[in-house]
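re: ur question from the group chat, yeah i did fold both. here u go
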Amino acid sequence: MTRSSEIDIPAGPRRWESADVGLLAATACVVLCTAVVYPLRTIAPPVSAGVVYVLGVLIVSTYWGLWLGLFTSVASALAFNFFHIPPEGTLDVAKGENWVALVLFLAVATIASSLAEQSRARAREAEHRRRQANLAVQAAFALLLDRERLQAATIETQALRRSDEVKTTLLRAVSHDLRSPLTAIMAAGEALGGEGISESDRRALAAAVSAESTRLSSLVDKLLDLSRLEAGQAQPRPDWCSIEEVVAAAVDDLRERRDLVRVSLDSDLPFVRADAAQLERAIANLLENAVRFSGGKEALVKARALEDRVVIRVVDRGPGIPPEDLDAVFEPFYQRAEERPQEGSGLGLAIVRGLVEVNGGHVWAESVPGQGTTFVIELPLEKRAVRPLPLTQEAG
């Protein structure tokens, strides 16, 4: 009875998890990161060394939650501006490129806080499930108790492992995928402020800033999309939609590269019931991936209707995928061995799978090494759906 009573008592928050302790920890992290940046300024520009503050944001968000993480983000941005961005000792910003760096830093820190809070929530959920399992087995025979304890331990281990994976992928994104375009933008911005730059060089640098900003914006959007999908917050708004219109919009998203895609759709494809915007993003990600790996050759998107489903295929002319990697390509941050890190974030296919599955479909890859890859999307048809007929005046 004593053992059961101990299990019944819910554990309260630990003393070090209180808001007061968290506030002290946030302040300490900001002060420590501010001090650490000073010696780093001798080997790197101040705006580049500012990434140190993100580590403090991650620590506070992981252990004390989202709000203190956001507080740390704002405090870090203010400290970064006051102590390290010229003119120092004020909250003014002298150069436009420093404004860009400051705003992007705050955006990255906010995203880091949000993702760390999701990891924290998963850990709390795992703890709650473990306690529920313990309560459920109190009245069972000794064998059942041991079995449930093992199951609870397995659930907790899986949740903690998943939490570690989220933290690892987040740190990887912050340390490389986000830092690379930031570094390029800051370098181009500093060069634009220099003397004796020709008009052609100035246009090239401005184009580089625009391209890297677009790349950074796309990466942040993908991180947010993946975060919403993993949190179950990307619920579709299904409606009848045309496959032809969805594919056409996805091809248009490629802009100047749209001519590298050939479209071959069966005539009179039935309408499907899905979220057209989510389906468009999924196909657009597949087309972007296909064009990137086709080496300037024409990629292909085609679709046909079967008895109870519509099948969409996106075919590239790339090197193909080994059989053992056909499932792994849909994992976040996966990159093929031959793909250089700067060619992609490794998030596109994970987002494709999430968007297709929340709309009731399936997606997989088919490939023969050396002969390209085909990504297949299957969407269910509801009662052999056909194209809606145009409205006509009713008789009588």
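okk and heres the other one u asked abt
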Amino acid sequence: MHVRRNGQWLSAAMGEEWAMMSVESGNYVTLSRVGARIWELIEQPVSVAAICARLSSEYDVPADVCRIEVDGFLGDLQAANAIVMEPAAG
């Protein structure tokens, strides 16, 4: 699966967290430091596997644990209409 941002979102650091708001819908999301890092990584469309590989190396987390956490987080972003998940071109 590939993930890409959906629409225009404004974001800003607020202490240890990030806040994001959709320009179009007014949806509001807060992100942890790791969530903000994932948001950075999906500035351009990218595979979920690539996100997990990068985070596993940056945060020294086992790949299987990382994938579970990333999938959950991306599900939350998808529910907020902040991202679109697409099958990888094959």
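fwiw on the second one: The chain has a mean pLDDT of 92. The longest strand covers residues 9-14. idk if thats what u expected
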